[in-house]
Design goal:
Blueprint: H1 3-18, H2 35-46, H3 60-71, H4 76-86, H5 88-107, E1 114-122, E2 125-135, H6 136-140, H7 142-207, H8 213-248, H9 276-283, H10 285-306, E3 313-322, E4 328-335, H11 344-409, H12 415-451, H13 470-474
Antiparallel strand pairs: 1-2, 2-3, 3-4
Length: 476
């Protein structure tokens, strides 16, 4: 081999060896692990972002913030903060985010080169083969694979934010239920006291001969019914308290939660949400997840078609030495021959996966518009009901109670009428508490169906990378 030929072989070897290194510089992990985008999405929807301290092993800062919040009376905002800081489900979502970023980085790196060595001896001669092979098909498809993983990483970021918004909604719902249960228990105890007083008075009047057995039996039955309702109210307080504790991610050491004595007052006016359907389609995280899933699947379909016939293509440098012979150098190319598998199954599967993703996105869009309308209707209705109790029913009950008390003081009505009116008034107050609770829950759920996702349907939850066509996986 003359000198120019040796130089050409040397340049070929250098090109083959350095070609895979050209794209390695862009395959790096981000400084924030994708958390900045998640924090931005959650802050826009629940007013609270995910602190970066959750991605570190040092939990002293988190524990200090949780302890500070638990030492004061809890609000609907503080319970959301504790949930975001402490709930294990969020840590799972952050772990999924790390997995998605690792897949993205891996998609930007070519497969490690392969090295082969062979030695043959016989008849006093030794023959040695050496070769180093690089995955050329992986290198050529790297930009497309990286674009697919970028979309999946963005999809996982949206899903992580959706988990945060869903947790915040569940926590707010549990918070309002716990406060309402505690507030209702106070009034149920007053009903129970009134029932006991009425029953004892009926018993004394019956013994004195001023009341018949029928009236006494009615008062006694009412007392027992109230006792049952009181027991249910006490259980409801315990159940709602435990549900809130679970959503806060607290253990046995934080069983005593400081809740306010009453629910927040109704807002002065109802929120005006114009073009709520358009807003839901633009802001709902599950809609954005479905869109990205469709785009990623479409890109995967293109990769599957590109690698339909050849999805394993390797090129490399090879040399061979033998006894009493000069060194022989050259290159080696390896690829699979489409003799039995022409790739139709992979392409058909990819097309079916794409259509599944497309119609899933259409289904999510239909649900988003409908649930936004339904949620706003519930929000308006519960506001009107709660306001009706606050402005009309409770004041009317108070006027009736004042009138009955005047008649009793003037000896125009009996003590039993007075007790019956007190029971009716407290019952109305309990219904007003329920209406106020339902309004705040409806507001939280409206915020979720407009900005987060579906409250009930599981079809809107699309795992990141779930729709990967087989051909795209093999092209790695």
């Amino acid at each position: 081999m003359n000198f120019p030929q040796r130089c050409a072989h040397a340049r070929a070897r250098a090109f083959i060896c350095l070609l895979p290194l050209t794209l390695l510089g862009c395959a790096n992990f981000s400084a924030d692990g994708g958390l900045n985008r998640v924090s931005e999405l959650s802050r826009e929807r629940i007013g609270y972002s995910v602190p970066h301290v959750l991605n570190t092993t040092n939990s002293s800062t988190v524990e200090a913030r949780i302890s500070t919040s638990l030492s004061a009376t809890l609000s609907s905002d503080s319970v959301v903060e504790i949930t975001v800081l402490n709930h294990p489900r969020l840590r799972v979502a952050l772990a999924d985010l790390g997995i998605a970023e690792a897949d993205l980085v891996q998609a930007g790196r070519i497969r490690n080169p392969g090295f082969s060595f062979g030695r043959l001896s016989g008849n006093g001669e030794v023959e040695i083969d050496r070769a180093i092979m690089f995955d050329l098909s992986g290198l050529l498809s790297m930009p497309l694979r990286r674009a697919i993983e970028e979309r999946r990483f963005a999809q996982t970021q949206l899903q992580t934010a959706l988990q945060i918004v869903r947790l915040a909604t569940d926590t707010r719902r549990a918070y309002f239920q716990a406060v309402a249960a505690q507030q209702s228990l106070v009034y149920m105890k007053q009903v129970d006291q009134a029932a006991q007083a009425s029953s004892e008075l009926a018993e004394r009047m019956s013994k004195a001969g001023n009341w018949g057995k029928l009236e006494q039996a009615r008062e006694l039955a009412f007392r027992h019914e109230v006792a049952v309702q009181l027991a249910r109210a006490e259980h409801n307080v315990n159940a709602t308290h435990e549900r809130l504790v679970r959503l806060l991610g607290l253990g046995d050491s934080h069983q005593a939660l400081k809740l306010p004595e009453r629910l927040p007052d109704l807002p002065a006016a109802l929120k005006r949400i114009d073009e709520i359907e358009t807003q839901a389609l633009a802001q709902r995280l599950d809609v954005q997840v479905a869109k990205l899933d469709t785009e990623s699947t479409a890109k995967s379909l293109g990769l599957t078609r590109a690698t339909r016939f050849v999805n394993a293509f390797e090129v490399g440098y090879q040399n061979k030495s033998a006894s009493n012979a000069s060194l022989a150098e050259g290159y080696q190319v390896e690829f699979s021959l489409p003799l039995f598998d022409w790739g139709q199954a992979r392409v058909r599967r990819a097309e079916s996966v794409y259509m599944r993703s497309f119609y899933r996105a259409a289904d999510v869009a239909i649900q988003a518009r409908s649930e936004a309308r339904e949620g706003y209707g519930s929000y308006r209705t519960n506001f009107d009901i709660a306001r009706q109790y606050r402005d009309e029913i409770i004041p009317a009950r108070k006027r009736i109670s004042d009138e009955v008390l005047l008649r009793y003081n003037g000896m125009l009505s009996s003590v039993f009428e007075l007790l019956a009116d007190a029971r009716a008034q407290i019952t109305s107050i309990n219904l007003a508490i329920d209406a106020q609770r339902d309004f705040w829950i409806a507001e939280s759920e409206l915020n979720f169906v407009v900005n987060g996702g579906s409250l009930t349907s599981s079809l809107t939850s699309v795992p990141a990378g779930n729709a990967t066509p087989t051909g795209a996986q093999r092209a790695h």
